Amino acid sequence: MSVAQVFEQLEQNFNADAAQGLDLVFQFDIEDDKTYHLVINDGTCSKHEGAHDDPSVTLIMNSETLQGIVSGETDGMQAFMAGQLRAEGDMMLATKLGELFKMG
């Protein structure tokens, strides 16, 4: 699955109920591919290619780690502890991804 397809899958698995009242930007710097960001705004999610001017949190990983996390094969916290995933900005927001998107 390509990185672009992974982000399409994330968008399709978005949980609008969990995003009510939120205004966040999750940026994904994929080291061996492109940068994408997801704008979560009061129950909506939109996917964009490229960097955002002011992301809430930036997650840095390679495409293999991204695919593992989205498929549910890789635990995000374990990837973080193993150094496969780095976060910049509000790291606690990274823990919200599992609520906002159905993984696996």
TrEMBL record:
Residues 7-102 form the SCP2 domain. InterPro entries: SCP2_sterol-bd_dom (IPR003033), SCP2_sterol-bd_dom_sf (IPR036527). This is SCP-2 family sterol carrier protein. It holds the Pfam family SCP2. It comes from Marinobacter maroccanus. Transmembrane segments: none annotated. GO terms for cellular component: cytosol.
